[in-house]
Amino acid sequence: MVSLSPAADPWEQLTELQANAQDDEAFRPLYAAALRDFHRAGWTYRQLGKANGVSHEYVRLAILGVPEEVTTSGIVVPPRPKSLSAIPLRDLDLAIAADLRSRLSRAVEADPEQRTASGIKTAVADYFAALHNAEAAGWDAYSLAHALGSHPKAIFKFVNQHQRSGEGQAPPYPDAPHRNEPTLHRATRPALPPVKVPDDDVEKLHLLEQTAGTEAATSQDANAYQALLGVWYLLGASREELERATGQQWETIRKRLVRAGYMSGKPRSSTRTKPNA
Length: 277
What we know:
There is one protein chain. The chain is mostly helical. It has 3 domains: about 1-80, no CATH class; about 95-180, no CATH class; about 200-260, no CATH class. The protein is built from 12 helices and no strands. Keywords: Plasmid.
């Protein structure tokens, strides 16, 4: 009568069974049954063949040849981790989320007179630097966007802007917990909805715009308009969404964002060759 090794690791037990089966025919049915048990747990012929140094066809034929009376190998086989169809969103560290939200608020409320060399408010540059540091710590743009009510495209854009300019200051964040990469093979990114300006804020923008052309208009009204427009820009509302919310063309919106210090007023340097005069 053959018996299993007391080794706790199921893969070690399988390796020992394979070695015993090569030396003693009595172990071969048990080894074949073990291959079958692993296969039933989700491990493929190729994976088992690679782990045992044999071909996948050898594994397939061995499983087909398991005697009917051998119902199990006795090995407690771990289920194979399945690849995810979509990468799950991660719960952003609460302290990091709170700090990013605080920096976003400061970016909106900060004095527009305090600006960087590129023309954006210093507090806006600090917010971009914080997003960069969060991504550098291992937090993906999708999880950051989900936690902030933003969109991944905005996270990518502002992180890249910080990398180009080097402006802004923010402390480093603790590293994100390690993610089990094998389960993410061929997984797609999660789909996040586009940022939509709520109807209440759309109404506020239109009311503030109407007030701007009257004698009752104040600098406080102008600041409120800029702040509301700026926060939705920083949260990642698209050009089309900002046009819908304000009733303005993008070029008008862009100029207002530049004047308010949310967007750089400097055009990107062109690499196009100038024609000879």
